[in-house]
Design a protein that fits this description.
With 200 residues, the protein is mainly β. It is 0% helix and 52% strand. It contains no helices and 16 strands. Strands 4, 5, 6, 7, 8, 9 and 10 form a seven-stranded mixed beta sheet that branches. It has a five-stranded mixed beta barrel with strand order 11-12-13-16-15.
Length: 200
């Protein structure tokens, strides 16, 4: 992980909980955590600037009637949010989806609670943003593996077959948590893999 010079001493242990605002880049892994590749301290003028919160992760505990769900220890309230590429709001239809959400207001979950609640302004499902038949290149961690030939990177389903070439690993090494790069074509919303490269 690259620690930006904006962080005192180049050590995240020097960040102050409840005070410092950071931006973290990385990959969402199979366990729903983010493997950070970059951490930077964000400076705001407390009198004039409004923080713009942004989070990516897997939905759990979706409550359609309350219009809330959780990502890790964060509760998101989406009642006034713009929804993009999200399925119908059923209690079980959203759990497990990888989403990208933004919001401007946070609050604590209540007395003696360390949970934070984010009022979302936008919630969108992560996808490739490609047209059918286009060449696709996707890098990330395997988040679900139905079989060695049928797996997911985030929300994107990938199919491998006898014509798929592998570099740095084999078909039998495809499993949740493995970091790979896939090249192929988008057919029916599924990436047909022509090449898979295992990342160290």
């Amino acid at each position: 992980t690259d620690i930006d010079a904006s962080i005192p001493g180049g050590n995240v242990a020097n960040l102050m909980p409840g005070r410092d605002l950071v931006e973290i880049s990385g990959f969402v892994t199979g366990d729903g955590l983010i493997r950070g590749t970059w951490v930077e301290l964000k400076r705001l003028d407390q009198k004039t600037d409004t923080p713009d919160y942004h989070v990516k992760g897997f939905i759990k505990n979706h409550q359609a009637d309350q219009q809330t769900f959780e990502i890790g220890d964060l509760t998101l309230d989406y009642r006034d949010a713009v929804l993009k590429d999200m399925p119908a709001q059923s209690n079980d239809g959203w759990d497990g989806l990888l989403i990208d959400a933004a919001g401007k207001q946070t609050s604590f979950g209540g007395l003696n609670s360390s949970r934070i609640r984010l009022t979302a302004t936008r919630v969108s499902q992560e996808n490739l943003g490609l047209e059918e038949g286009e060449g696709a290149e996707i890098e990330g961690f395997v988040t679900r593996a139905l079989s060695a030939e049928d797996f997911f990177i985030g929300n994107v389903q990938v199919l491998a077959d006898a014509g798929t070439t592998f570099q740095g690993g084999t078909l039998n090494e495809i499993r949740v948590g493995v970091h790979i790069e896939v090249h192929g074509s988008l057919v029916g919303g599924i990436v047909k893999a022509t090449a898979v490269e295992f990342k160290p």
